[in-house]
Amino acid sequence: xxxxxxxxxxxxxxxxxxxxxxxxxxxxxxxxxxxxxxxxxxxxxxxxxxxxxxxxxxxxxxxxxxxxxxxxxxxxxxxxxxxxxxxxxxxxxxxxxxxxxxxxxxxxxxxxxxxxxxxxxxxxxxxxxxxxxxxxxxxxxxxxxxxxxxxxxxxxxxxxxxxxxxxxxxxxxxxxxxxxxxxxxxxxxxxxxxxxxxxxxxxxxxxxxxxxxxxxxxxxxxxxxxxxxxxxxxxxxxxxxxxxxxxxxxxxxxxxxxxxxxxxxxxxxxxxxxxxxxxxxxxxxxxxxxxxxxxxxxxxxxxxxxxxxxxxxxxxxxxxxxxxxxxxxxxxxxxxxxxxxxxxxxxxxxxxxxxxxxxxxxxxxxxxxxxxxxxxxxxxxxxxxxxxxxxxxxxxxxxxxxxxxxxxxxxxxxxxxxxxxxxxxxxxxxxxxxxxxxxxxxxxxxxxxxxxxxxxxxxxxxxxxxxxxxxxxxxxxxxxxxxxxxxxxxxxxxxxxxxxxxxxxxxxxxxxxxxxxxxxxxxxxxxxxxxxxxxxxxxxxxxxxxxxxxxxxxxxxxxxxxxxxxxxxxxxxxxxxxxxxxxxxxxxxxxxxxxxxxxxxxxxxxxxxxxxxxxxxxxxxxxxxxxxxxxxxxxxxxxxxxxxxxxxxxxxxxxxxxxxxxx
Length: 663
Ligand SMILES: NC(=O)c1ccc[n+]([C@@H]2O[C@H](COP(=O)([O-])OP(=O)(O)OC[C@H]3O[C@@H](n4cnc5c(N)ncnc54)[C@H](O)[C@@H]3O)[C@@H](O)[C@H]2O)c1
Ligand SMILES: [Zn+2]
Fold this sequence. Notes:
There is one protein chain. This protein is of the alpha+beta class. The protein has five domains: 3-58, Helix Hairpins (Orthogonal Bundle), CATH 1.10.287; 69-294, 2-Layer Sandwich (D-amino Acid Aminotransferase, Chain A, domain 1), CATH 3.30.470.30; 298-395, CATH 2.40.50.140; 413-567, 5' to 3' exonuclease, C-terminal subdomain (DNA polymerase, domain 1), CATH 1.10.150.20; 583-659, BRCT domain (Rossmann fold, 3-Layer(aba) Sandwich), CATH 3.40.50. Helices cover 34% and strands 21% of the residues. Strands 13, 14, 15, 16, 17, 18 and 19 form a seven-stranded antiparallel sheet that branches. The longest helix has 20 residues, at 3-22. It is globular. It starts with a helix and ends with a helix. The structure holds nicotinamide-adenine-dinucleotide and zinc ion. The site of zinc ion has 9 residues, from loops. Belongs to the NAD-dependent DNA ligase family. LigA subfamily. It catalyses: NAD(+) + (deoxyribonucleotide)n-3'-hydroxyl + 5'-phospho-(deoxyribonucleotide)m = (deoxyribonucleotide)n+m + AMP + beta-nicotinamide D-nucleotide. It is an enzyme of class 6 (ligase). One of its GO terms (molecular function) is DNA ligase (NAD+) activity.
């Protein structure tokens, strides 16, 4: 693979990993994600002309879409990362004689809190760094550490991290055993996503400040004291004047990380003097006057007491390690994943072994290996994979190189529950008012078997359960009603068809399938004609959707929409499309001239597609037009010149989009 292909592959992978991460379900550990970013950064430094466009390294966070969008006064950036003492020393060398504060890197979500003439005006999430969500109402109701007033004139902007304290998290989960929070960070993010503070009562957050901007300039230039004077709890800052002292503080923070009441994933170094920090300026996505030292994923040792085989929604049987309770990565872990038989074999794990358990970020803890096989007593037992399904007794089949085990019995009770939970999940029908524990109970009592059974539930039936009251029953029913708008793409995801991914569902919509029934009718031949759908995926879709026909009918009868939704369709090219037939590359930052608001790249792309353009990611001989926004990199322009590509400023495109009625 050449550098260009590798760069594109890494950039694509970053987009996928970030998407999962910012939706609250990361698929890899942070360190693994950071390694992908590092590789891309290295390749782009060596081959600047191959920089991907858009370049994920120049983007932060995820677009804000939940509440009202608010533009930040100045971008909320990411941080440069370090993992070695040499990098800390290099940071000090860049700023000779400047004192530095070292503080914990709190693992919550960052907020900008703005005061106008002493009054709290608004609180905004980071969002994509340029525009965030207005969470003022939620913050007023739920966040401690944000005073309603400050004693300062003009405009004051305080930035910091909103976290759920571990103690709040633990107390909440004790009170809500049927709908527990996953971890403090996820909980903080979820809390600030709520539409109404009342629905997240009891989920209080704490705000720790680490950044300050004042207009007019306040006299106090030391960051920590300036924040305290205003009445904020600053992140715990220790002042250092050389790299050794800073390294010592970093080590102390890492050692204390288990005793603190909040999650942290590293330490932040930052120039202590506000003027010096401002003068240092910024790079494309991080300030020069700060550095994040990231801690390795936490590892602990404990005893593997047993292995149970868990049945998943597609019938996959996965080994789960039962562990003696161990506190790692901010929570007590008693279960961890062992992936599959091959991983068990490769890591040589036996029951009774002392094993290393690793947990990083939100990722499910996993058994990383055996601590010291020479210390075995002989009482350890081999882990023997089952030959029949632990739930239904059906003989298992083995698939793939890692010899994953599957139960192929479609009426297997364990699979039934998993599939119901999956149907209700956010990526599918999003029945958010009914948690997994309730789904399981409703399945046990025979009320739920297929997704369509959700739509037969009534408030009266739910009220027969002791722990469901009027209010929650009403919320559950309302949530079920809303989920009737699921549509083709999300319904396909929700049906958990083996081998069909979220990408498969999106591709089928874009390829013109109008409903789930259309997909069945197309047959294997019709499906493999769709780009990127292979024969295995096609056969699996046809086999399972054919089997599910009666269920599809029941869903239809219950008023559930299985038809494609507008948002999942390819753009409709407008009549008299001004960019028809043109291959277009977009670069730089785009804004709508009518409002001056920044327009996210995907939104502008879709507008150009509606105008008939085919979008390409880099300039080549086949490019017809390069559309430029603000802050365009020189490399793109040089290439455009080389290939004699027409360069058009975005300001000339908007009037055409408006004239064609596209915007
Ligand atoms: N596992 C995955 O798949 C995956 C995917 C994407 C991102 N990530 C992780 O998410 C992070 C992405 O970077 P990012 O831009 O969101 O954050 P970052 O690591 O670059 O750090 C910036 C953020 O740190 C926070 N912060 C906490 N304490 C701070 C302090 N004392 N001073 C300054 N800032 C402080 C702020 O919220 C700020 O927005 C990385 O840690 C990365 O590993 C993981
Ligand atoms: Zn089974």
